[in-house]
Amino acid sequence: MKIGIPLFQGKLSAHFGHCPEVAMVEVDLTTKTILNIQVIPTPPHEPGRFPGWLRAEGADMVIAGGMGQRAMDLFRQAGVQVIVGVASDTPEVIVGAWLTGRLQTGDNGCNHDTKETHACGSTNA
After folding, report:
1. Are 55 and 35 in contact (CB under 8 A)?
2. In the chain, what are the domains?
3. Which of 4, 40, 47, 83 is least enclosed, having the fewest CB within 10 Å?
4. Contact present, 101 and 93 (Cβ < 8 Å)
5. Which three-class secondary structure state does DSSP give residue 40?
6. If we measure between CA atoms, which residue out of 32, 68, 33 comes closest to residue 50?
7. Rounded Cα–Cα distance for residues 40 and 99 (Å)
8. How do beta strands 81-83 and 21-28 pair?
9. Mean pLDDT of all residues in 75-93
10. Between these two residues, 68 and 101, which has the higher pLDDT value?
11. What's the angle, vertex CA 41, arms to CA 35 and CA 45, rounded to 5?
12. Cα(1)–Cα(61) distance, rounded to whole angstroms?
């Protein structure tokens, strides 16, 4: 299984759609271990592009701080499970917590359903 983690300066990015790179974390669900982490640059941001791109990179799941509802729907349509509301930390810590059932989630910090500035700092103008 591969988990995509959007990154900014080596830690989970608050806004998936504007992250400069993604950590692709390969895990073994039987042994609950991280097998490999590969950091890859993201393509230029275009609405609706990331879900298909990340699925093509092998992601089965994404773990993010925040993401708009449309993006979440597109990920799910592409067969990628979505977890949002995760606090910023390194991919190793986040995926390790998920593997052991200790991953804490909160509010989706990036719900772009209204035209205002969000916790991620982006606007939906």
Report:
1. no
2. 2-99 (3.30.420.130)
3. 47
4. no
5. strand
6. 68
7. 22
8. unpaired
9. 95
10. 101
11. 130
12. 8
